[in-house]
Amino acid sequence: MKANAETISLKHVTITDDFWKGKIELAKDVIIPYQWDALNDNIPGAAPSHAIENFRIAAGLTDDECKGMVFQDSDLAKWLEAASYSLIYNYDPELEKTVDGVIDLIGKAQQKDGYLNTYFTVKEPEKRWQDVCHGHELYCAGHMIEAAVAFYEATKKDSLLKIVIKYVDYIMTVIGSDEGKLKTYPGHPELELALVKLYEVTGEEKYFDLMVYFIEERGKQPSVFLKESSLGLANNDKWFNLDYHQAHVSLDEQDTAEGHAVRAVYLYAGMADLVKYTNSEKWKTRLEILWENVVENRMYITGGIGSQGHGERFTLDYDLPNNVAYAETCASIGLVFWAQRMLQIEPKQTYGDVMEKALYNGVLSGMSLDGKKYFYVNPLEMVPEVADYRHDHQHVDSERVGWFGCACCPPNIARLLTSLGTYIYTQNEDTIYTHLYVGNQTSFHIKDQQVILTQKTNYPWSGKVSMSMQLERSDTFTLAFRQPVWSKNIKVMLNGTKVATDTVKNGYVYLSQQWHHQDEVTIEFDMTIHMVRSNPKVRENAGKIALQRGPVVYCLEEVDNGKDLHAVKINPDSQMTVMNSPSDLGSIPAIQGTGVKESTSPSELYMFDQKPDEDKIEWQAIPYCYWGNRGKGEMMVWLREIDRN
Amino acid sequence: MKANAETISLKHVTITDDFWKGKIELAKDVIIPYQWDALNDNIPGAAPSHAIENFRIAAGLTDDECKGMVFQDSDLAKWLEAASYSLIYNYDPELEKTVDGVIDLIGKAQQKDGYLNTYFTVKEPEKRWQDVCHGHELYCAGHMIEAAVAFYEATKKDSLLKIVIKYVDYIMTVIGSDEGKLKTYPGHPELELALVKLYEVTGEEKYFDLMVYFIEERGKQPSVFLKESSLGLANNDKWFNLDYHQAHVSLDEQDTAEGHAVRAVYLYAGMADLVKYTNSEKWKTRLEILWENVVENRMYITGGIGSQGHGERFTLDYDLPNNVAYAETCASIGLVFWAQRMLQIEPKQTYGDVMEKALYNGVLSGMSLDGKKYFYVNPLEMVPEVADYRHDHQHVDSERVGWFGCACCPPNIARLLTSLGTYIYTQNEDTIYTHLYVGNQTSFHIKDQQVILTQKTNYPWSGKVSMSMQLERSDTFTLAFRQPVWSKNIKVMLNGTKVATDTVKNGYVYLSQQWHHQDEVTIEFDMTIHMVRSNPKVRENAGKIALQRGPVVYCLEEVDNGKDLHAVKINPDSQMTVMNSPSDLGSIPAIQGTGVKESTSPSELYMFDQKPDEDKIEWQAIPYCYWGNRGKGEMMVWLREIDRN
Description:
The structure is a homodimer.
Chain A: E1 6-7, E2 13-15, H1 18-39, H2 51-58, H3 73-89, H4 93-109, H5 118-123, H6 132-135, H7 137-155, H8 159-174, H9 191-202, H10 205-217, H11 231-234, H12 261-278, H13 281-297, H14 329-345, H15 349-363, E3 373-374, E4 381-382, H16 384-389, E5 401-402, H17 409-418, E6 425-427, E7 431-434, E8 440-446, E9 449-457, E10 464-470, E11 475-482, E12 490-494, E13 497-498, E14 504-505, E15 508-515, E16 520-525, E17 529-534, E18 544-549, E19 552-557, H18 558-561, E20 568-570, E21 577-580, E22 589-598, E23 606-608, E24 614-623, E25 635-636, E26 639-641
Parallel strand pairs in A: 7-11, 20-26
Antiparallel strand pairs in A: 1-6, 2-8, 3-5, 4-25, 6-7, 8-9, 9-10, 10-16, 11-15, 12-13, 12-16, 14-15, 17-18, 18-19, 18-26, 19-24, 19-25, 20-22, 21-22, 22-24
């Protein structure tokens, strides 16, 4: 099977720009070592992870009690995956040695029949496969496969790969369409996309076929999940019902994104992998329907998804409250995964745009600038007193917390950052597609030669991008690149001469010609500050605007603009200027403009026939993903505007 | 002891106007009989109350199992109180016979020592007085006292009075300041104000003193409640902590209204009774501080209080979300109780205004026009799909429910409606104060004669009120009446001749003169439609207006204005007209005006630099308390306005 377009192996990409390089190095220098300590319960004052200890118990090396969540193994797996990518990015023999040691331990924890899950090995062995819906056995298997594939790519060592192959081969004796096997599928999707990676690295179609089985089986009624013991209980809560698991109807009848947002987008990423290799029209159409629903009905402007804390889930079309948003960091990461795979099916502006939107806003907001603190939940509006007080804001933190207190988002950010190189390009026989603008140097094998493409840019702050080529010989192929939806105009030069950009398809500009060594294409996107308004169906944004420049969504913070940000009205018709941000954020573009602020001094709660006094103000907005780095305070993305209609 | 001003006994008031008479008759004809069936578990399909059955068990007449909430007895007590008022309003020998029978049963359920509580008599006798914080023994005692006093007033029969006196005398052997007694106070305030009623009817100061003890003892630290067994658990939930019970600090150190809203205002009503009889400056000042906090910081424009479902409680100043409001019907009723008592301390516009505001808006919205369905929770904004779906809207019903499904608000409305006559006036030696404008005929004993005052009005729809007097002889005294804050101008005529209204104090107009038989005062309030705006500190109402005419707050409903009410912008500068409401609401004034509505047809979720199209519209608003009587649909009180600044 062959995909329409392939991603580029991480080994061939070197990221060079200031913006991303710093973050990737944070992952290497801060997150990965710190997480290692956490997994080993070596962080004083932090809740112990138990993850490594559980493997030691399962391996028979100690006889402590297995502790932690049922999905604790996946924390180690995600760490292994991030560590493996990091080895590619920046080889470190000590880290490799550590990883080798862990893999050895994992091998010892694997059961003779291939089973690999510390919780059900040690704590509740009688419940193995008894609750596939909630047991997370298949979820943990998926993360372990992703780790194995990453480690294999990094080192060509198949130590972990052998372990997971043995495990999956065992799983296939338990689950599947054959008589006597369990007809089930992952309660938390993840194994689907992992099986595709396993297929890609082994060439064994049976892994791909198992993934297809999961997709086809999902949601058939009466649900296999209802026959399991524990769902009866969860079933009493409508937000944790079958749709929480995307299992309420067959997947090919699902028109709207329902349930737990991370589960949903991991699943859709797996479905996209299916289409990538099979060109299935049925599933392609299904994905387009679901994409449209997520992106045009249920996504925050930041690329955040899941607008309810309870169930961490999707709710209803246009139901996007800003203050009680969930918008889990992991869900935006999953959206990036999904978008990346959609781009391999068909390069379309919406996929690249949303990937970029999620990356620069909803994902990066999850991490503090020093890489040490995290948001799980990414609201678009913050009043700390309210978030800290109100019961319906319980899920919202008013400040980022030390990442060790929780186990899912930090390593997910780490594995995304350390593998960012695979999101920039895809290619097929004769076309190199650029989806993200990131300073990097990448080598492509195209038309029987190695092409080295060097991208230089100060993106996302600048719209200027140069792409220069090193060729072994001149040849004809196509460079395609995404024109972001926010850039109405685009200026393209080839070796200093303006070129026409009339070959645009689905938002991608195609330059097909004979290329020569040292050709340089420069692109200039329009970095105008946009006043974004929501579809008027979005109740919470009625009468409000958000500021966006390039892919970056801005916000107002209390530290720059005082309290009561809801009393500020932006003047959308006045000149707005881009200026250097406050120095404690580094020298990044802030936006300054004028407006008014209602006086909050009147003492009456209700006033008859009287408008509040307004003072003229200057306001300053900073990138949303930088919020919360200067202490606790109010923050607001959707701003009231002076209405001149 | 003598109060500054006394209420008028219900026996001397006959309500005659269309607006209230119909509602009081609903109470008599619908609510009271229906509730009786409910208390006897005779409503097919409804959850059984068990209340009467529990008394039969406690009386030894049957040996079933005691069921229902720990405070189930109070449902019967509230019914007895409402039934007693109804006997005054409209004597019914059958109803009196029923009440006599129930009182006989209650007497049999009373223990030899005087104890009277079916739950702790039958179900957990060993826990008597073990958990005063949550046990509701004192709360139920309070309601039984109120019933006893009401029945005595209605019939002069002291059968229930004797029972509660025996109970309270027993309580005083258990709780109090003496050595060896429990130093505690009600977890749910209610007994406080009931003890004052008992004092008023018996003249026994020991009951008043017990109330004072409860007020003085409340909130002393370390809290007696923390020594009880069950609060440890509740204590883990910050919204059910000591402040939930107004027990976090001594009451005379409480500057803000905290905790469960019903508990709070019942307590404040008791405190006001204390001041009424003692003129205590300390407690008067405390009440003024708390009143100011509630009314100027924590009250919805409807007189709803309690802006969080979890804990049914107060939250923070200016934290007044409209869609997830709690604004329990009972809390608005409690606010009426409190205001009524503040008026007896000192007639001030704010007390009368808030009493009226709560009555015409937050209380009446609790009941359907046919008197058969109820809201516990009174949101100021409704999108049914959202309320029915979102977890953080769980406490909000999108439609009123049959009142039998829940036990607290319906009988509370019933007892308020049937006793409305006591809220209209107060008097002292030489002044009759009019606080509410309600058609009625009332007799006062003033200056050694009986004065009959006949109030005629079509209030709240009309601002015209006439008050005519029947006197035995001409005499000098004062008629004082409230000038509502919403009426900037006021026209007063005496026997057809305009009189000066320059003697105004605290928002009350004082007419002191010699009055003659058949004198008629007519008052005309200004019924201009007001555009009300919130203090700009209220986040949820920023840029919005509410419509108010007279005391009545208006709202838009979907049935009149289509869906997506958030897309409507009112033109506050255009002419608004008062017209007859849709016929299915009866012939009441609706408000019509013009504005625009944003087109909700665009399909993109986010639009760059583009304003939504707007269509000119006419809209129609109806009184908030009438909403939800024409099927399920959107509703909105706070409306966006076209901003001409």
